[in-house]
Amino acid sequence: MVVEFKISFLVIILICVRNFVFSQIYSIIPTMKLQKLYSKVRQALDDYNMITENDKIAIGVSGGKDSLTLLYALSGIRSFYPVPFELVAIAVDLGYEDFDLSPVKALCDELSVEFYVVKTDIGRISLEKSKNQASPCSWCAKLRKGALNDFALSVGCNKIAYAHHMDDIIETMFLSLLYEGQFYSFAPVTQLDGSGLAIIRPLMYVGESVQESMPLRRPHTARICKAACQTAQYGKSGCQEETVFCYSKRQYR
């Protein structure tokens, strides 16, 4: 009886120790993956001198994983980067109903980043301007960039960070070759003529797989706002990306 009790007690102790060890391992994994994100973003910032002292940088946030990953990365790096810089998050409201940005605001409050919403009627205007076109996405993209740039200047920003990651850059290169016959992709830093603004792309070394492997319990790793536009997923860019994906599968399978 005594022997059985001792064995049972020992088993319970071993189970508790095992659970404790695994809990410690799992608590370290998110930090390791976050450090990988910081490392790749920091490398891009340093390689192309994307940030200089006292820059005020705007991030266009939509509620999707790309822009929120960029927001989370730059807000974290801000605390230990060699030169001081400011961050603001700007969301362009296209005028669609049921576009709830409160989760983005909550995340910005958590990260101590100023958050602004630019109210527009871009959704309706894009549909009107593109009546004879297959998709309103081109008009929408141009108008959104204009609204973002104008508001960024109005709050004193001198740079805008875009959330294009490594996969985007590679896909754009192939799309340029296939549809335009040019070898072109996004530049790490782009000066906008006459505006005083510069575009930077800090996620250029970050593959989409790195973002998707981040722990899903973190708020920056998944879309936290429902996409209001119902036409974007059927636009030309989606078909082009599918073409590149299918071509790469044929080439390397």
Please provide a written account of the structure.
α2 links the parallel β1 and β2. The protein has helices at 2-47, 65-77, 102-111, 122-129, 137-154, 166-180, 208-212, 236-252; strands spanning 55-60, 85-93, 114-119, 159-161, 189-191, 198-200. The protein has a six-stranded mixed beta sheet with strand order 3-2-1-4-6-5, with helices on both faces. With 253 residues, the protein is an alpha/beta fold. It is built from eight helices and six strands. The model is unreliable at 17-30, 215-222 and 234-253 (pLDDT under 50). α4 packs antiparallel against α5. The protein starts with a helix and ends with a helix.
Write a brief structural summary.
With 253 residues, this protein is of the alpha/beta class. It is built from eight helices and six strands.
| Contiguous runs where pLDDT drops below 50 for at least 5 residues | 17-30, 215-222, 234-253
Separation, N- and C-terminal Cα atoms? 63 Å
DSSP strand tally: 6
Largest sheet entry: 6 strands, mixed
- Gross morphology is globular
Secondary-structure-derived class: alpha/beta
Spatial strand arrangement across the major sheet: 3-2-1-4-6-5
Radius of gyration: 23 Å
Mean pLDDT: 77
Helix content: 40-55%
H/E series = HEHEHEHHEHEEHH
Q: If helices are DSSP runs of H or I spanning 4 or more residues, what is the number of helices?
A: 8
Strand content: 5-15%
Notable traits:
253 residues, globular, disordered C terminus, single chain, 8 helices, alpha/beta, 6 strands, 6-stranded mixed sheet
